[in-house]
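Researcher: Sequence recovery benchmark, item below. Answer with residues only.
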């Protein structure tokens, strides 16, 4: 640790009395309560609650005396989006050997298009099983083998070939073992299918591989978003979505194949795509689309001596808006834990920085839009500021902070990636806490939050997310922490019950934000440039911009 940050290991404690810079659990709770109230209508991008959300966050930044860091010297950055809605009443059909089966949106499959077209009509498209849908030359892997997918539906497994690999299988370890890579993400599978010329993609949903249940898949209720593109027909599939595993099992059986046997074959480099014999997929539905402009909120504290070097703290302000009524009649999905408390953490971090002397480096604070729709706000900002990213020293992201109380540790999602991690461990040790490596790397949470828009461009990142595994709580230990994760994920993740409750305990969230603040404060004043570990897939990306940091 001292080798990475030699002059700073214990310097921070002397800057100001600790109390002046303590993160407040009460303020985290209060801000979360406000943003998760029904008045904000679930904070959907472009929805009825966006303006109120933006005004609240800007008001908090102004009150703290921050500087605006958005477009044209303002507080926000415009993010042009398409909002798509798959209209009810569409028809979806699987046909095998002349026998047709009608499928139902939400219960059997989730379907969407991200092209601005009024109707999607696909007639009897052949179905081709392409295994995990991965092309990885650096791992000597190609699931496509030159197959022609024009006019066809690609049927794809979720996660990557290592996920269910058994000891001794040739693939084992080629894709990082149980620790998922970007190749396992549904976003990657859509992107690769576009490159391969597919008409559409259906991903087979399996809870273990996806790391979430079917309720999460269908939570958008037919709605999706994308940034405005010059040529959507070139960049996006005509149809993309998921089907239930049981449907895939039946489909394979009726086509004369065994689903599990084909999965096992897909874990070998010799796998070749399989056109399902006498099997087709048809769809006919209306697609409503609206162009809108959503906004990122951006503020900063200018660096006193190195203003062109930056540390970023960020969270996403959006949630899932209004949807179908739950059992208790609620329709607003308020997103308290995901991610109003993260926004509160950014605001509280800004408050802590303002309580101390001006940092040497610039501190940037961001509240992103449309994270739930595909990391769109952070991606749009990263694209617009590509030239400045080599001098972004670090990024700390808050997304789903636990509300179960104080913990002896902080669980680090995507651990083993970069030099920010041992630094965070040293900061935690001074607080009498430890860092626990990601206990469920197969959930691919490292690729599912806004920090990834920066990580894939080489910026060292730390993600604070309480969903990978339970923290070691001071009351109840790891078992209690796991119960909190399991309960939240099963019941409230993206649902109407993700609301502020008086029984929630924000002290653990405050302690995690405190660690991020103290680590970033040291980095801001110490001038070091953390790097990625040699084993990280982002090491080479950062190395390519090394000249900008000399």
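Model:
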């Amino acid at each position: 640790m001292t080798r990475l940050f030699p002059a700073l290991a214990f310097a921070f404690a002397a800057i100001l009395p600790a109390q002046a810079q303590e993160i407040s659990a009460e303020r985290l709770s209060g801000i979360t309560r406000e943003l998760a109230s029904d008045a904000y209508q679930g904070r959907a991008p472009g929805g009825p609650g966006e303006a109120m959300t933006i005004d609240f966050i800007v008001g908090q930044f102004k009150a703290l005396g921050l500087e605006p860091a958005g477009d044209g010297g303002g507080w926000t950055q415009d993010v042009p989006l398409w909002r798509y809605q798959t209209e009810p009443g569409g028809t979806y059909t699987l046909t095998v050997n002349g026998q047709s089966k009608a499928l139902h949106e939400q219960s059997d499959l989730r379907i969407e298009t991200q092209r601005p077209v009024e109707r999607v009509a696909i007639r009897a498209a052949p179905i081709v099983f392409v295994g995990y849908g991965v092309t990885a030359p650096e791992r000597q892997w190609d699931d496509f083998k030159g197959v022609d997918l024009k006019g066809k539906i690609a049927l794809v497994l979720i996660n990557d070939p290592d996920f269910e690999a058994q000891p001794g299988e040739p693939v084992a370890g080629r894709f990082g073992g149980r620790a998922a890579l970007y190749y396992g993400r549904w976003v990657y599978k859509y992107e690769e299918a576009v490159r391969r010329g597919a008409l559409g993609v259906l991903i087979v949903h399996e809870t273990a591989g996806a790391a979430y249940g079917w309720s999460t898949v269908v939570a958008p209720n037919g709605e999706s978003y994308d940034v405005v593109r010059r040529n959507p027909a070139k960049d996006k599939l005509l149809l993309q979505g998921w089907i239930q595993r049981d449907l895939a099992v039946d489909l394979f059986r009726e086509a004369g194949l065994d689903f599990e046997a084909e999965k096992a074959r897909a874990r070998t480099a010799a796998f070749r795509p399989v056109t399902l014999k006498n099997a087709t997929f048809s769809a006919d539905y209306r697609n409503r689309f609206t162009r809108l402009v959503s906004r990122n909120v951006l503020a900063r504290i200018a660096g006193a001596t190195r203003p062109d070097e930056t540390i970023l703290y960020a969270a996403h302000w959006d949630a899932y808006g209004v949807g179908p009524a739950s059992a208790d009649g609620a329709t607003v999905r308020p997103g308290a834990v995901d991610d109003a408390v993260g926004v509160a953490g950014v605001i509280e971090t800004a408050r802590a920085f303002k309580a101390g002397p001006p940092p040497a480096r610039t501190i940037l604070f961001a509240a992103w839009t449309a994270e739930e729709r595909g990391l769109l706000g952070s991606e749009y900002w990263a694209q617009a500021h590509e030239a400045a990213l080599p001098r972004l020293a670090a990024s700390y992201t808050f997304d789903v902070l636990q509300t179960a109380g104080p913990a002896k540790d902080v669980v680090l999602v995507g651990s083993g990636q970069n030099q920010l991690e041992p630094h965070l461990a040293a900061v935690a040790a001074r607080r009498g806490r430890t860092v626990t490596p990601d206990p469920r790397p197969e959930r691919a949470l490292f690729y599912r939050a806004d920090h990834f828009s920066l990580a894939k461009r080489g910026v060292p990142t730390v993600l604070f997310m309480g969903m990978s595994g339970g923290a070691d709580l001071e009351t109840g230990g790891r078992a209690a922490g796991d119960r909190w994760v399991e309960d939240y994920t099963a019941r409230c993740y993206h649902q109407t019950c993700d609301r502020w409750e008086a029984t929630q305990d924000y002290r653990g969230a405050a302690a995690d934000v405190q660690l991020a603040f103290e680590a970033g404060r040291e980095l801001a004043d110490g001038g070091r440039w953390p790097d990625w570990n040699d084993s990280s897939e982002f090491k080479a990306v950062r190395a390519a911009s090394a000249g900008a940091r000399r």
